[in-house]
Amino acid sequence: MRPRLVPCAVILSLSIMSCAPGAALDIEQRIRSVEDGLLKKNNDPLQKRMKLADRMKHYNVPGVSIALINDFKVEWAKGYGIMEARKDRPVTPDTLFQAASVSKPVVAAAVLRLVEAGRLELDESVNDKLASWKVPENKFTTEEKVTLRRLLSHSAGVTVHGFRGYAQGEKIPSFLQILDGRPPANSAPIRVDIVPGTKYRYSGGGFLIVQQLVMDVLKKRFPEIMQETVLGPLGMTSSTFEMRLPENLAERAAAGHRRNGRPIVGKWHTHPEMAAASLWTTPSDLARFAIEIMRTRTGESGTVLPKRPVDEMLTPQIGNYGLGLAVIDDGRDLFHFMHTGANEGYRCVLVGYPERGQGVVIMTNGDNGEALWEEILRSVSVEYGWVRDSTTP
């Protein structure tokens, strides 16, 4: 089915809305440039620029939502296409998507807030405070310990890359069953099989250890912890870590879609692996999170974290990964952080350039959405000067 570009409101920051009409027209032109400038490669010639509507059709991705950050504000946010194939409900800036692994930097911020409050330690063995479950000791953990710093930077030597979640009708395991890989869990046991601190290896399993740790220490449900530490303070009112969406949010949630464009049975999978993959949110809400990190990085007092832990968050620990975020230094003011996400039926990306006060969040409801957001990101990067525009003479 051909995805439709459904007209919907463009959300502009208050400063933009209060500007002269010409400024608003400039924003509209930038939006059109992004929509008409998708690229397979950054150095493709002008004639290879593509339209968003055509690429959505090409990739069988029914819906896309974008929030663009400029001058530390959401400059514009816009939805495209539909929430579910063969249905008429348009994607708007208020449509929720599964953020998948983009859950992890939000969790990292919550953890660092607990570290600042003295409830957790970055460099002590997590087994010192884990109560309901312990990381099984073995020959690798006798050499080095599993710590929060290593878990947040994917260097703790922990297994299990990611999780597919649970389809409608499948039995949901307990959290302890997931940690130990016992039925009905559909993932392997979370164990240490590399000496901690010696190698970067992406591990969603490591963030489940983080989840158990914060629940044991605070003696609260994980969604409540995330609401109190990050989502609430930042005004992320369209966001939740609840694995079962509250009714008021479920009605605004986009269904996930397979590569052939067909909806997932039951619309989406359920993720009890909350710290690794369960965040439901909108691009504008995730943009609020990115803006908080960027503002604090550049010296403003943060709502969630002071500058020191944010600097640590954005300092490579091993490879190019900080605490919860990948960090890339392209020189001058092009230092940036990012994280991607991929759940069944959803693909997304968050990017922030602290020195420029710019960034973008792109969320899609299709398994082919990664290829699509890559093309959108190239268009945004050219329009906002993050890469050189090679399409013009």
Question: Termini separation (Å)?
Answer: 37 Å
The major sheet is characterized as: 6 strands, antiparallel
The first-level CATH class name of the domain at 105-225: Alpha Beta
Provide the structure class: alpha+beta
**How many H/I helices?**
13
Tell me the name of the CATH homologous superfamily of the domain at 105-225: DD-peptidase/beta-lactamase superfamily
Mean pLDDT: 93
Instruction: Report the sheet-strand fraction.
Output: 5-15%
String of helices and strands: HHHEEEHHHHHHHEHHEEEEH
Query: What is the fold-level CATH name, i.e. the topology of the domain at 105-225?
Result: Beta-lactamase
Rg, nearest Å: 21 Å
Low-confidence stretches: 1-19
What is the β-strand count?
Answer: 8
The CATH architecture assignment of the domain at 105-225 turns out to be: 3-Layer(aba) Sandwich
Explain briefly what this protein structure is.
This protein has about 400 residues and is α+β, with helices and mostly antiparallel strands. The chain has 13 helices and eight strands. It has a domain of about 120 residues: DD-peptidase/beta-lactamase superfamily (Beta-lactamase, 3-Layer(aba) Sandwich).
Protein described:
This protein is 31% helix and 12% strand. The protein is of the alpha+beta class and 393 residues long. The protein has a domain at 105-225: Beta-lactamase, CATH 3.40.710.10. Strand 7 (346-353) and strand 8 (358-364) form a beta hairpin. Helix 2 (21-35) packs across helix 13 (369-383). The longest helix is centred in the first third of the chain and has 15 residues, at 21-35. It is globular. The two termini are 37 Å apart.
